[in-house]
Amino acid sequence: MSDVAAPVAALVEELSKLPGVGVKTAQRLTFFILRSPNDQARRLAEAILRLKESIIYCSRCYNITETDPCPICSNPGRDQDCICVVEEPLDVLALEKTGVYKGLYHVLHGALSPLEGIGRKDIRIDELLKRLSAGNVREIILATNPSFEGDYTAGVIKDDIKNGIATPVKVTTLARGLSLGSDLEYADEGTLSRALEGRREI
């Protein structure tokens, strides 16, 4: 884009680095921002800066939050005996939209993938086991994505719980209403509700 003004080329380049955004989409977004009123562009820039400066990880569940502990962990109305394990913060949003689940969460921030060199030290499995060692959890719902990596991660966690936790914990997984290889964040609320309600012990 040598024939384009440097600020335009720079923004196109940065936007095209976002997941799911190709060069054409980045160009459309750039020219939309260029045509927008200055205050709208300023609000966008301020929202991005605020996101980076104020968002932290909850020290209990590792979900994204502005306060520690997060609003879900600190809510006395939530079921403190049940933890739903998910791969990403977006999965929490998807499950919360169903209105069905009333327990706590644990966000792994990824899934095990030996082929990509992602091991247990790269995600929050050990932190989950530490939470369970306190002995006040009766059920763990393994809500990893229905993919090879998600199933493998769930299997490792299940084995860790069975072999390393002194207090018995019921381990369940979502019912298979979800398409193989899909992500929880893209599932509709009805499908997720049925998957939660029909969860089975493993």
From TrEMBL:
Query: Can you tell which superkingdom this protein's organism belongs to?
Result: Bacteria
Q: Which SMART domains match?
A: TOPRIM (SM00493)
| Presence of the UniProt keyword Zinc in the record | yes
The UniProt entry's GO biological process terms, in alphabetical order, are: DNA recombination; DNA repair
Q: Does the keyword Flavoprotein apply?
A: no
Tell me which UniProt keywords the record has, alphabetically. DNA damage, DNA recombination, DNA repair, Metal-binding, Zinc, Zinc-finger
Q: What Pfam family is a match, any one?
A: Toprim_4
C4-type zinc finger span: 58-73
Q: Tell me which stretches of the chain form a coiled coil.
A: none
| GO-annotated molecular function | DNA binding; zinc ion binding
Per UniProt, residues of the Toprim domain are 81-179
**Function as written in the Swiss-Prot or TrEMBL entry:** May play a role in DNA repair. It seems to be involved in an RecBC-independent recombinational process of DNA repair. It may act with RecF and RecO.
For this chain, the family text in UniProt reads: Belongs to the RecR family.
Q: Which PANTHER family match?
A: RECOMBINATION PROTEIN RECR
What is the protein named? Recombination protein RecR
Q: State the organism of origin.
A: Dictyobacter aurantiacus
The gene that this protein is the product of is recR
